[in-house]
Write a structure and sequence with these properties.
single chain; alpha+beta; 5 domains; seven-stranded mixed β-sheet; six-stranded antiparallel β-sheet; 37 strands; globular
């Protein structure tokens, strides 16, 4: 803040009055003229110093001023993201005609016509095919475009030959622009640092891709800090669940009052998985006391292996999708078969279908060249037979309307998987196999697409990585979460419950999309997000008491708390897993690994009133 000339002159006169009381400093005297001139110069200097301090104070800047300041250092605000996903166009009746789905076809939300998505590639309904799946993205950026499954159903401009359209899975990735607080934090973590070969460098390179919204960089080790309570009996066990390797040092243990404990004197460090502390002396805290434990570990998703001295690998996991069309011609071979033996190449336990289930033994693997895969054709014609892509409507190994639903998408699910050069392709049902050496064409109509973000980031990383570093970019794994909510609405929102529910979906989606890797969903935060939605009077997560026939032996069978569902599932479908206390069905906090990101899979609503909110 500036200081005026009069204030400075007044301070100097007061000082002179003490040191030389006889000196005349009144107006018009030579001394006063000197004081006035010096005071004016000092006041100007105060102003210039204040302006200079403001010019380099990132915490004092907002909006466009903050943008301009950060751009001086090559850092730009991350713009709002548009949601992406797929929609399925279907027809009934005559299946003999060829129907083309134009690029740019618009589909709007069934609940809000202003929310529009558009096809990013064209699609073709070939003769005999009743449906085709096409990638889409929202026209407008923001979380509003994260439509739940089954909400994109209105074709803005009807397409002759198409009866219906829907998104079988939720559209995801829509996110509001980076806030001032988030931009300041990112600026502080990168600027003025030596970035070559650092985590910040890899993060910066990845986020330069317009469609990458989250990054996780995993090297040869990661520091973890936990606050643990000493048990009554036994060792103090750490709570880590995703470690591949625990380092024996360095380890730092501190009591709640800040007193450090000495390794191998006060305690023994047991680098098991999970690691533990064993007390050795009377100075070790008593039962019930708190300890802060800091140690090094290797995440389970890393390709490094300290036991064999492999520590030069960096794994970069990226969130975001950009569908790129592809096509390929191949020869069908029956020789690559999935098996249940863990030592074989195609062990079922290290492969994953799109619906998050494992392949079936004896089914055949057909590799594809471009991935990770986003979409494949809904039908393939091989030697005169029409084969279809399996779905919840037509499971793998079924026949309907002249189509044999015989294949589904699979990806290699190992530390080497989910990269542009890992393995992915089609799992083919063992009962419905084309003849050996039958030619197959996949793509060509915009219906075979892959995620271009990992390959784009990989190219950029290759230009920046240090010599000797094996850096590999992976697509993030997504956990599709369903929230089961009991909501009390305000009296003023009684007639607009649908719009309040849409706002809740949008708020939850934005909350999840802002999460980074290795984060956690805390139930208290979820409720706080919902409470901020206008029209919500009170809310809670449904539990076992809300569901008739709830069984603690099988929480997945009931819609309670927070659960993971398959990406192509409707919100009321069976859960893959439940994040609840089995005995009560009450929701628990959810923790994600270094390669996982949460995605809103759906919200199930139950309307409650004051007399039922706490009773059920």
């Amino acid at each position: 803040m500036g200081v005026s000339r009069d204030d400075i002159v007044s301070q100097m006169r007061d000082a002179l009055l003490v040191s030389d009381p006889e000196l005349d400093t009144s107006i018009g005297t030579p001394v006063r003229k000197i004081l006035d001139a010096v005071g004016a110069s000092l006041a100007d200097a105060y102003v210039e110093n204040h302006l200079l301090a403001y010019a380099y104070d990132v915490d004092s800047k907002t909006d466009a001023d903050l943008d301009s300041f950060c751009q001086l250092f090559g850092i730009a605000r991350i713009a709002a993201r548009r949601s992406v996903g797929t929609v399925t166009f279907s027809r009934t009746g005559d299946l003999t005609a060829t129907v083309f789905i134009p690029v740019g076809s618009e589909i709007s939300s069934s609940s809000d016509s202003s929310i529009v998505v558009t096809t990013v590639v064209g699609g073709t309904l070939m003769p005999g095919a009743s449906s085709v799946t096409v990638p889409v993205q929202a026209v407008t950026a923001g979380p509003e475009g994260n439509l739940g499954a089954g909400m994109a159903t209105q074709i803005t401009s009807p397409i002759q030959g198409v009866s219906t359209v829907t998104n079988t899975a939720a559209l995801t990735g829509g996110m509001s622009r980076e806030t001032d607080s988030e931009l300041r934090t990112r600026w502080k973590s990168t600027v003025f640092r030596s970035l070559a070969g650092t985590e910040q460098m890899y993060r910066g390179v990845a986020l330069d891709d317009a469609d990458c919204y989250a990054v996780s960089v995993v090297g040869s080790s990661r520091t973890r800090s936990e606050i643990l309570q000493v048990p009554v009996t036994g060792n103090t066990v750490c709570q880590i669940t995703d470690a591949r390797y625990i380092y024996s040092s360095p380890v730092q243990v501190t009591k709640s009052d800040g007193t450090p404990l000495i390794k191998d004197y006060d305690y023994t460090w047991v680098p098991s998985n999970p690691p533990a502390l064993a007390g050795l002396s009377a100075s070790f805290p008593a039962a019930g006391e708190l300890l802060t434990v800091e140690y090094q570990y290797l995440p389970v998703v890393s390709r490094n292996d300290p036991a064999t001295n492999i520590t030069n690998r960096v794994d970069i996991f990226v969130g975001g999708t950009r569908a790129q069309s592809a096509q390929t011609s191949l020869v069908f071979r029956q020789s690559k078969v999935f098996q249940t033996v863990s030592t074989v190449d195609l062990y079922t336990g290290v492969w994953l279908r799109s619906d998050q289930t494992r392949p079936t033994a004896s089914n055949v693997f057909v590799p594809l060249p471009f991935g990770p895969i986003v979409t494949v054709p809904s039908t393939l014609s091989v030697a005169g037979t029409t084969y279809g892509l399996a779905s919840t409507t037509h499971p793998l190994g079924t026949v309907a309307n002249g189509v044999t639903y015989a294949y589904t998408v699979v990806h290699e699910d190992t530390v080497d998987g989910w990269t542009p050069t890992s393995r992915f392709g089609l799992e083919w049902h063992r009962t419905y196999l084309p003849a050996d050496n039958s030619p197959i064409s996949v793509g060509g109509n915009g219906d075979y697409t892959y995620n271009e973000v990992p390959s784009s980031v990989q190219d950029a990383v290759n230009r920046w990585r240090l010599t000797g570093i094996d850096a590999r970019v992976h697509q993030a794994k997504q956990r599709w979460l369903r929230f089961s909510l009991g909501v009390m609405y305000t009296a003023s929102s009684t007639g607009s419950v649908d719009s309040v529910q849409d706002a809740i979906r949008s708020a939850l989606s934005d909350y999840l999309n802002r999460m980074d890797f290795n984060s956690n969903v805390q139930i208290s935060d979820v409720l706080a997000v919902i409470h901020q939605v206008p029209g919500v009077d009170n809310c809670r997560l449904l539990n076992g008491a809300d569901v008739t026939g709830y069984s603690s032996a099988n929480p997945n069978a009931s819609i309670v708390g927070v659960q993971q569902i398959a990406p192509n599932s409707a919100p009321n479908s069976a859960a893959l897993s439940s994040y609840v206390q089995a005995s009560t069905g009450r929701a628990t906090d959810i923790y994600f690994r270094d390669d996982e990101l949460p995605v809103l899979g759906g919200v199930v609503f139950k309307t409650l009133a004051r007399n039922s909110f706490g009773v059920l």
